[in-house]
Specification:
This protein is 60% helix and 0% strand. It has 70 residues and is mainly alpha-helical. The protein has a domain of 44 residues. The radius of gyration is 24 Å and the shape is elongated.
């Protein structure tokens, strides 16, 4: 009688998906914020969006006026 481990055919390992480390870091940060502030994922998304808009707004202030979009 053959043992189970002897009958098993070797399978090639499953290919790993390439994960962008920046996306992984962002997702991890979101999870930490959700747990720390006891919020919903949508609240975290809104917070991030507001911060990005604030950043864009302050960057526009540093450009010469002729480069501002009207």
């Amino acid at each position: 009688m053959m043992r189970l481990w002897q009958r098993r055919e070797a399978r090639p390992p499953e290919p790993r998906r390439k994960v962008n480390p920046r996306i992984l870091e962002l997702e991890t940060s979101k999870q930490i914020l959700e747990e720390a502030f006891h919020t919903r994922p949508s609240d975290i998304e809104d917070m991030i969006q507001r911060r990005l808009e604030e950043k864009i707004w302050t960057e526009e202030e540093h450009w010469p006026q002729e480069f501002w979009s009207k």
